[in-house]
Amino acid sequence: MPVPSPFHPRTADLCTSLAWKSWAGIFAVEHFGTCHEREYYALRHTAAMIDVTPLYKIDLTGPDAAKLLARVTSRDITKLDVGRCTYLCWCDDDGMLLDDGTVTRLDDEHFRLTAAEPYFHWFESHARGVDVELSDTSARIASLAVQGPRSREVVAAALEPEFQSALRTLPFFGALAARVRGFDCVVTRTGYTGDLGYELWTANEFALELWDAVDLAGFAHGLLPAGLSALDVSRVEAGFILAGVDYTSARDAAIPAQKSSPYEVGLGWTVELDREDFIGRSGLAKSRSNPHRRATVGLVLDWNELERLFEAEGLPPELPSTAWRGGVPVYSASGQVGRATSGVWSPTLKQNLAIGMVGRSHAKVGTKLEMEVLVEYQRLRISATVSKRPFFDPPRKRFTPKNSPSSSHSSPSGELV
Hints:
Blueprint: H1 8-14, E1 19-23, E2 26-31, H2 37-45, E3 47-51, E4 56-61, H3 65-72, E5 84-91, E6 97-107, E7 110-115, H4 120-125, E8 133-136, E9 141-147, H5 151-158, H6 161-168, E10 175-180, E11 183-188, E12 197-203, H7 207-218, E13 223-225, H8 228-237, H9 281-289, E14 294-301, H10 303-312, E15 324-332, E16 335-346, E17 351-359, E18 368-375, E19 378-387
Parallel strand pairs: 3-13
Antiparallel strand pairs: 1-2, 3-9, 4-7, 4-8, 5-6, 6-7, 9-12, 10-11, 11-12, 14-17, 14-19, 15-16, 15-18, 16-17, 18-19
Helix pairs in contact: 2-8, 5-6, 5-7
């Protein structure tokens, strides 16, 4: 039975659709109104706020906190500056991917890691003999994502005046310790929409005050609450992979073929091999030096072909308005070469998009493949062109006004920020 999040008294009143799902054992809204489209357009044109409290959170404190994170993740976290976040992954002993997430350095000896799945005990099992304290803060910290082109103005207006200037110059993947209505709040310039956005983190007891402050600040900017359906459309447009959908964690794989290296899922840029030994390093070194079996790619599907297939049956073209998930076969002229795992019709790009994993020899941008589609119960095919990810990548996502600090840590697209 799912449990309410700290924001539930607000989201429950607004969720007239009664469309709920369980995310990490917590009630999460799929869409607040009749459908998700209004919420999606707020994400892309004004701003939206999303309850992302179900993310798993681990706080690490102590002199060896950075050392531990560098030993168990793909990044050398000892080089991460205070007030910065980074995107990374962690692997098993063979260099096979377990999960991906973020780490924020809140202070010299205080870090916060987020994950899609519960990994507290895995990290704890590797902390023996080091001076670090781990705390599973998943149930104690509420998190609210504010995303969209007007999100900077919304978040700045919600903060107390002395923090507003710092927020406006906060760089991509930066973190700011601030205050809202007298309580402490950490703001990170992160998100899962591929747009300008922030995530606000505070203790559960201040969650409703945080929601109200952001809601009031966003009134003049067209802010709307948004659910997971709108978030899923935006994350496919951004080309972001999802654990358990676009790849299988090595911990959950039933057979070796279901496991992937970070290089195969497009996370090779998060792996820093040229440093002291860490978990999975030898396996990752082999993966980097040897040709990978597969690669995760973007696919743009031919709309005209899809339309003609439906027209032949006397039907209008049919697509789900929400993002889809599942294994859909992808072919070359010689046979099946992979699968598509996520997809959506992009209202912004006016393209039919998919994320998939194909054989390495078919992963070059511009390669012409085919994807299976179902038309009136018939399994047919349409053209699918390998495309660069992200599909949607607006300059505002990374743009920082003048006088902001800089950093050399990478962004989720692999570019320096």
